[in-house]
Design brief:
Helix content is 0%, strand content 39%. By secondary structure, it is mostly beta strands. Strand 3 and strand 4 form a beta hairpin.
Length: 119
């Protein structure tokens, strides 16, 4: 060996020394949209069907009024539609490529969600 590294005095498991560590404090933290508690029965499905470039048709399971929210990957609301019934067009052509979360909430409190990728 051309060069001999000096002994550091660290325990053998830490030799060479590290600049970081991983800690867990028992916290239950989440990132992104909070997950709604799942009801005993599935209340329906939010179906997103592509119908044009960067656009999807949202099909809702019931005829009641719905609010639809679209969030970007940073959690910012980029589109909101109120009082939607059965079908609604979601156009993301003016937004950046990436992953978007779509959340639909009915007047009776049913919460459905789906994800789309704009490319």
């Amino acid at each position: 060996m051309d060069h001999e590294f000096p002994k550091t005095g660290y325990p053998e498991s830490l030799d060479p020394p590290h600049d970081g560590f991983i800690a867990s404090f028992g916290a239950q933290l989440s990132v992104g949209l909070p997950e709604a508690a799942m009801p005993a029965q599935v209340q329906g499905t939010l179906l997103l069907t592509p119908y044009a470039q960067s656009a999807w048709m949202a099909s809702l399971p019931t005829d009641e009024l719905w609010a639809i929210q679209v969030f970007d990957a940073a959690g910012r609301a980029v589109a909101i539609a109120q009082q939607v019934q059965k079908r609604h067009a979601i156009d993301l052509s003016r937004h950046a490529n990436g992953l978007y979360a779509v959340r639909a909430v009915s007047a009776s409190g049913i919460v459905l969600s789906a994800k789309v990728v704009r490319q």
